Each structure stands twice: as structure tokens, then as C-alpha cells.
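Minimal example, chain plus zinc ion.
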Amino acid sequence: MSQLLEFTDRGIYCPRADCYIDPKRGAERAIITHAHSDHARRGSKYYLAHALTVPVLHHRLGKKISTQAVEYGEEIIINGVRFSLHPAGHVVGSSQVRVEYAGQVWVVTGDYKLEHDPLAGSFDPIKCDVFCTESTFGLPVYRWADSAGVIRDINEWWRKNKQNGITSVLFGYSLGKAQRLLYSIDTSIGPVYVHPAIEQINALFRQHNIPIPEVNTLSETTPYQKLKTALVIIPPNAMKNGWLDHVAELSTAYASGWMATQGISWVRNADTGFVMSDHADWDGLNEAVWLSGSDTVYVTHGFTGQFSRWLCENGYDARPVDM
Ligand SMILES: [Zn+2]
């Protein structure tokens, strides 16, 4: 007998409903946890996602894709299988997928974090028989400090740079980190500029009443004088487009969970790093497994071997899944 969900080289598959969760290649039906590129890919005929993820899917995958938007908790039944999305706290619109058939419940987390996010909301623990968790930071060395303290450090770094006439450049992903930073930093310190890729996502979310502060959009012609005391937030890969080449003095920083181990060497040209992640840390992963009430755990994305071994040592029936 086939399992309710199977792990295939094309992604997590529900044979009974003939649909994939975050398929790696095009599929007939795709349920998407969130719009990061390693979860939302082109080529599927039909996409089901949270109402705040669908606009980003259209923005990233094309206006013409066929989508269905659902709210958290809304049930979609496909061939008797009940699917519903629940808050994952990772980025705005990110979802866990609950799958139920014949009294058995599976949960696929997608990416998630347990710390409350003012924009993405709070991870909603769901009781299940089988829990499929990510493990991006599934090693004990990854333990996040309270983000309020990290934001204070970022404000302090910016304030100091401003006093010295140095432009502050902060790297953050255009979906998720950028909005979290914008919402949290003290925008009274000075002008804030964001890369157009970030502003496009901001504008989509503002249309859906997500309270993202209005800031300036960086362009190739933004004069240096305007950037001198500014905080500039750009995606990590945007530095190479040369838009900041005319800035005489700048200090660069990275906001990422990887800063906990790989320090500033991970990102060439970054002067400093702030440990801030939209993924669960080691304690968060363990707590999520415990909260699921499940004895059976599949571990995907990240330190799958290490985290599943740890769970087995602690009495779980845990298996790594490297798709
Ligand atoms: Zn993600």
C-alpha cells in the first residue's frame, strides 16, 4: 500500500490526490509552501498557495500561471484527501501543508521559524501522525539570540556609520529578510533605500495591507550625497551590478543565520554580519517536532542526516530525506 505522501526525485508526492508539494519540476498540481525559488518552480499546470503567496508566484513565475489562493485553515479536498495550509512564520504567506486521509494526518512544514515574526505571523503547531520538517539549521551550533537585540545592533551599526559619513549596506533576501528588516529597524536614524527587486515585493504586500514602511527605491542614478547617511538594503547578489560603485565609503553587513558559523567570510566584501534567520534554529526544530506530537519524522532540506540521527537517539522513528 502506498503512503499518504511519498518522497520522490520530483518532490513530495501524494499519490491518491496526484499532486506534489513544492515540486522540483513541473507537475499537474502543485501545492506551494512559499515563493522562495527552491520551493516555487516553473512548469506546473496549477498552483495552490496561500493568498499572500499567490501574488509573489505571479510576480516570479509569470502572470499566466494558473493559481488558486486559499486562506489559512481553508480545506481543499482532492479525491478524498483533505489539504489545508497553516502559518509557518517563515516569510509573509509561508505555509505548512496539512494532509489528511482516512484518519491519518501528515504535516509538511516547508521552511519555518518559531520566533514570532510581526509580518509573517507565528508558526502554528499542528498535531499529526507523521511530521516532515526542514532542517536547514539542524545542528546544535545554530541557536539564535532574540531578534530584538540583533535589530538594536543593526541600528547601532547604522548610527555609527552615519556619524562617520559612511553608507550602510545591508544584504537581505528580497522576499522575507528585507521586509522583516524594514519593519523592525529604526527608520528615524536616516534615509532608507531598497533595491527595486525588494520594492517590487514590498509593493505587492502593501496592496494586501501588510504594514511595510514606505522607503526610497535605489536606482543606478541615485546620487552619492543622498546615500551618504543612508541604510541601503539589497539582495546578496545585487552588489555586483555596480550601482554602489560611486559610493566613496561604505560598510557592508549580512543578516543571516549562517553568520553563526561561517562569519563574514561567507559573503565576499561584507565587513560584518548579524545572526538573524527566518528558519528555526536547533531549539526551534526540536520544539516543533515535540509540538507535532508525532513519533514519525521525515527530515528534509539541510542537515538531514545529523538531525534525524539525533531524533532517533531520542526515541523518534526519524528518517533523512534527500530528494
Ligand atoms: Zn524559504
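Residues 193 and 216 are 5 Å apart (CA to CA). The longest strand covers residues 81-87.
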